[in-house]
Write a structure and sequence with these properties.
Order of helices and strands: EHEEEEEEEHEEHEHEEEE
Largest sheet: 6 strands, antiparallel, barrel
Number of domains: 2
CATH class of the largest domain: Alpha Beta
Distance between the termini: 38 Å
CATH topology of the largest domain: Threonyl-tRNA Synthetase, Chain A, domain 2
Structural class: alpha+beta
Length: about 230
């Protein structure tokens, strides 16, 4: 298994690690700060620093072995061997945008009364789909989102047991993706006083760190499926 350091601290940018497996898909480490694709959030990119130089990581994915994380190396990258020591370092600017975007989507969950049918986090644009009959008012929604960002609500992660989640099924807002189980506990994200739900992604520490975020298009994607797009304005 790969120790997932990003689950406890999304702000970690690098860590020392040891190669535990090398596959056609990429390199598995004993521990990592790289987030693997999942929950609508893209996998991290970055570098593995070695004595012989930096090796680019183009993507991060969950491995076939339970609990493993595969660091996908750029085409033509030097081959590593089991036992090699590396420093795993993420592309922080890209990750931080994902953290801001992902947290902003949680705020939309608090503002829109409907089940989530899909979501995608991106650097320039993100979106979330809700199972609702009519589109919300774009101007009012944008003002409410701006107010939640400006209120600088703390964002904290915690864990609940599988049994606790089973006793509170309403915590799960997504209709298409279930929280990861199997370890006996489920990670939660609490935007204090605003939103609380299971989530394994990376987030900022307070809503004020999201910065300037605006509502883009609100699209009709089906009889009861409304897609809300957002973007960051630097």
């Amino acid at each position: 298994m790969t120790e997932e350091l990003f689950r406890e601290d999304s702000y970690l940018r690098s860590c020392e690690a040891t190669v535990t497996a090398v596959t056609d898909a990429g390199v598995v480490l004993d521990r990592t700060v790289f987030y693997p694709t999942g929950g609508g959030q893209p996998g991290d990119s970055g570098v593995l620093k070695t004595a012989g130089g930096d090796i680019a990581v183009s993507d991060t994915q969950k491995g076939e072995a339970p609990g493993s994380i595969v660091h996908v190396l750029a085409e033509g990258a030097p081959r590593l061997s089991v036992g090699d020591k590396v420093t795993a370092e993420i592309d922080w600017q890209r990750r931080f945008k994902h953290m801001r975007m992902h947290t902003a989507l949680h705020l939309l969950c608090a503002l829109v009364d409907g089940q989530i049918t899909g979501a995608q986090v991106g650097e320039a644009k993100s979106r979330i789909d809700f199972n609702i009959p009519e589109s919300p008012d774009k101007t009012a929604l944008g003002e409410s989102l701006k107010a939640l960002v400006g209120a600088n609500h703390p964002v904290v992660h915690d864990w609940i047991t599988d049994e606790e989640l089973d006793a509170q099924p309403d915590l799960v807002r997504s209709m298409s993706v279930s929280p990861p189980r199997g370890s006996g506990r489920v990670r939660t994200i609490n935007v204090e006083g605003v939103d609380f739900q299971p989530c394994g992604g990376t987030h900022v520490k307070s809503t004020g760190e999201i910065g300037q975020v605006v509502i883009g298009k609100i699209e009709n994607k089906g009889k009861q499926n409304r897609r809300i797009n957002i973007r960051l304005e630097e």
